[in-house]
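$ run holo --ligand "zinc ion" --emit tokens
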Amino acid sequence: MSEISQLALFGDDTAVPASTRAWRPLREPLPARTVARFWAKVVVTPTCHLWRGSVSYPDGYGRFTFTDGGTPRTLSAHRVALVIVHGDLGDGVIGEHDCDESLCVRVGDGHLKLGTQAANLAHAVAIGRHLGPTPAYRDPRGRYGRAVAIRDALLDGYDPGRLRAALSGTDANAIAAPTLF
Ligand SMILES: [Zn+2]
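-- output --
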């Protein structure tokens, strides 16, 4: 099985075109223990609720592996958050980040919402994210590198200075000014 078809099987919305993506329904609703394990990997900040678990390369989305009906399954963390809040997703339904933080799993206005590939593309075009493989993304760390830096800044919990440094790509030690977070 090719990597692409594997990703499609997992319902990952980041690596395959919409035309080849199919959502495989969950075999069972997420058990409470799985939901609890998921939220244990989330750090709540005054704005985004950020994933501090595994990060996918190269898109920089969170990844969560769980057991679905006895079978291991891995999904993007933001998709799992949407499933927890909205129930199982249908074909062609994707998660959209209004906050543009790939690790954000906060479902609600200004952060993560249900959307369609077409709407997501329009949003990407609007912010210039659709241009090229590391599209118009001015951060030299790239999406993955930036996400890993943010994740690592959260490993000991919410630390406004460390998080701000990771978000901006600057050295945490060089930041002494008051932060907005
Ligand atoms: Zn957010």
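-- notes --
DSSP finds six helices and seven strands in the chain.
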